[in-house]
Amino acid sequence: xxxxxxxxxxxxxxxxxxxxxxxxxxxxxxxxxxxxxxxxxxxxxxxxxxxxxxxxxxxxxxxxxxxxxxxxxxxx
Length: 76
Hints:
This protein is mainly β. It has a single domain (3-74), classed as SH3 type barrels (Roll), CATH 2.30.30. Helix content is 9%, strand content 49%. The chain is built from one helix and seven strands; from the N terminus they run ββββββαβ. It has one helix spanning 64-70, and strands spanning 3-6, 10-15, 21-29, 34-37, 51-55, 58-62, 71-74. The strands form two sheets. Strands 6-5-4-1-7 form a five-stranded antiparallel β-sheet. The chain has a two-stranded antiparallel ribbon with strand order 2-3. A hairpin with a 5-residue loop joins strand 2 and strand 3 (21-29).
């Protein structure tokens, strides 16, 4: 299981259960949070290249360049 630690805080747009943007709502990702790559999921928000990460009950989809800019691999 691949895991990544957030190295710079970032803000991600929130989506509802039907994958529509929730206006004016963002999820804050804090430095030090550990996120796990979920490779068996279907990417709902991003394109084919997006990466699905989960932390507790939350999940996000980000592009590889965002992953490289804000996260680093960690032992999992």
